[in-house]
Amino acid sequence: MSANQKALAIDVPGEEKAPAISIDDISEANAPVIYVAGGLNQFLEYAKAKATGEVPDLTTRKGRERIASLAAQVSKSKVAVEKPGREYLKRLKEMPKVIEDELREFVTSMDALRDETRKPLTDWEKAEDARVDAHNDGIQRIKDLAVFAEPPTAAQVQQAIADLEQIEIGKSWEEFLPEAAQAKDQALASLRGQLAQRQAYEAEQAELARLRAEAEARAKADHEAAIAREAAERAQREADERAAAERDAAAKRERELLGQAAAQQREAENQRLQLQLQAEQAERQAAQAEADRLAAIQAAEIARIEAEKNAERAAEQARLDEQRRQKEAADEILRQQQAREADKAHKAKTNRAALVAFMDGGMTEECAKLAITLIAQRKIPAIAITY
Q: What does the domain layout of the chain look like in residue ranges?
């Protein structure tokens, strides 16, 4: 028996029950079951029973020494229980940091393992996303060819149609082939509709320009004819005025100089002839202006008729082009449908051959179908079906 046990046991009546674990047996192994709520009550009750289990006689020296010894025993027992408890508490305070460090390292390692395990799938998903994005971008470019920021000219629309027709819709589009074909057909239909509208608009503008030119030609001819008439009238007035003035002068001179009558008469005749010539010249100029006006009207009418014929020829050509386009579009849709059906039949035949091979190898039909489906959907790395 240890000293503590001896100290706790002296002079204690036989009915007192000692703790299940003695103070000297407290260790790191049993500390978790001792230092719990109410776990130290057994030592407290035992020490209390020992300290109060006897009543020493204070009137004697031995009795007083006994009381002092009992108190000392209590202090010693207190230290014996508190010291390992404090050490246990210190370990408990350090434990969260150890656990946190261990958990942090574990979580980091597990995350790295998870990322490494998933990396092939992540890489495949990135490549798949890039492939899908490339097809979607190509389809959007097809659609954008039919859209213009500003109203286009017929030539611009024709160029867009030519660029769009250069885009090949084939197996390179993979599962996006139907969508790409539909986008191209819709874009071509939109562009051809825009082309017909722009051609009609430009023909209308040409007709308006022709009408404006014709109106300007008529206005010019009328203006020139008016100028010619005014010139003729002015020449006639001037001739009349000069003739009147000459006649007055001649009469005066005739009265004043009878001897010069013949000469003056000849001079007047000459002047009259000159005036007559000038009037005739003015009339010829007016006639030429009228002829020019009529020629301009005739030329404008010829130009109008030619423009109408050109418009009719353009409309007829547009109609023939539209008939040809519709036939080509229908032929292309039929060809693509036949190609898709042939491809579907070829794939079905290839898949059926693979199914038979799997079943000949020992797989059930259900497992064989599942395997072919997964391989066809490219969900099995490094394995593919060659069609």
A: 3-119, 335-387
